[in-house]
């Protein structure tokens, strides 16, 4: 992939995180930005790795999660085109807080930590944008805590599936284990509920994926009228 700054600036302008910046700011970001490709199932970094920069997904899917000593995986998030990640370790300079693994072929922008921190000190608009991103992550975490405390398992699962569908399309590429982690339920609960929705005719199941026939029908069946905007 070409690292020509003019081309990168054009590509960055289509990313929701960077789209609102003035052209001069985009040009400065593009000057330090590199493009990176991951093959499906390729590891980008692991929990505990040193921070080296910020990532913005152009296209593809990245799983954010952890693995315990017994090999059990916890999926914290699934990120796709337009999403930015790695901001915590970028700012505090400490180790990565989770693993990042490509679920499919993925193209990203990479901003080296030292260069990006220098930009933050001279570009208040970028610093404010990063603060807004962190605040959004905190709000999302609070929302998930409330969901776990007050919503039944079926509703939590439906909300996670809907969020993925709204963000990345009607074909949701996630395993039942990953959906279980995202919704805070067991894999058995996910399998049982997906089979019910399949019998109701609102979705089709495949290997590590599902496809929603009609998102409005799925909303009506699950009783979820609307979802608030997700942090990107």
TrEMBL record:
One GO CC term on file: cytosol
UniProt entry keywords in alphabetical sequence: DNA-binding, Kinase, Transcription, Transcription regulation, Transferase
Xref: CDD domains: CAP_ED (cd00038)
Span of domain HTH crp-type: 151-216
Coiled coil: none
GO molecular function: DNA binding; DNA-binding transcription factor activity; kinase activity
Superkingdom to which the source organism belongs: Bacteria
Residues of the Cyclic nucleotide-binding domain: 17-120
Pfam families in UniProt: cNMP_binding (PF00027), HTH_Crp_2 (PF13545)
Protein name in UniProt: Transcriptional regulator
Organism: Bosea thiooxidans
Lineage: Bacteria, Pseudomonadati, Pseudomonadota, Alphaproteobacteria, Hyphomicrobiales
């Amino acid at each position: 992939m070409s690292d020509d700054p003019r081309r990168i600036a054009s590509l960055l302008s289509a990313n929701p995180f960077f789209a609102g910046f003035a052209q001069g700011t985009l040009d400065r970001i593009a000057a330090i930005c590199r493009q990176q490709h991951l093959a499906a199932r390729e590891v980008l970094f692991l929990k505990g790795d040193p921070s080296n920069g910020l990532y913005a997904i152009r296209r593809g899917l990245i799983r954010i999660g952890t693995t315990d000593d017994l090999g059990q995986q916890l999926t914290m998030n699934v990120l796709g085109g337009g999403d930015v990640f790695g901001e915590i370790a970028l700012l505090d300079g400490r180790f990565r807080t989770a693993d990042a693994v490509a679920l499919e072929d993925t193209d990203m922008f990479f901003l080296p930590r030292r260069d990006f921190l220098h930009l933050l000190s001279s570009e208040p608009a970028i610093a404010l944008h990063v603060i807004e991103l962190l605040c959004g992550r905190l709000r999302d975490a609070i929302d998930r805590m409330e969901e776990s405390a007050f919503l039944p398992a079926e509703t939590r699962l439906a909300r996670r599936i809907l969020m993925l569908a709204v963000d990345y399309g009607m074909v949701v590429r996630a395993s039942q284990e990953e959906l279980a982690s995202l919704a805070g339920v067991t894999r058995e609960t996910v399998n049982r509920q997906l089979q019910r929705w399949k019998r109701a005719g609102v979705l089709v199941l495949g290997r590590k994926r599902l496809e929603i026939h009609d998102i409005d029908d799925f909303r009506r069946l699950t009783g979820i009228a609307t979802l608030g905007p997700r942090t990107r």
